[in-house]
Write a structure and sequence with these properties.
alpha+beta, 2 helices, 36% helix
């Protein structure tokens, strides 16, 4: 029963969030051979100025070895770091 939490920079439209949710749900169903009812998706919008403290330092860095897709940015390359 996958529950996916997507954290994105604030300012995404409802259309973008809906499309992303639909795409994620479809792909999870396909890869894991699940029905739609088994998948849930949450989207959390984070202010860009807060990204380093609330996402990078808490969700990314401490779990670096378990990330299947690592970001191409870091504290020195992101605005407002």
């Amino acid at each position: 029963m996958p529950h996916i939490i997507v954290k994105v920079a604030a300012g995404k439209t409802e259309e973008e969030k809906t499309r992303l949710t639909e795409d994620i749900t479809r792909d999870v169903m396909k890869v894991f051979h699940l029905g739609q009812d088994a998948v849930s998706v949450a989207i959390e919008e984070i202010q860009q100025a807060d990204w380093m403290d609330t996402v990078y330092k808490t969700d990314i860095l401490p779990h670096w070895d378990t990330l299947y897709k690592k970001p191409g940015y870091g504290p020195d390359t992101i605005k407002n770091a």
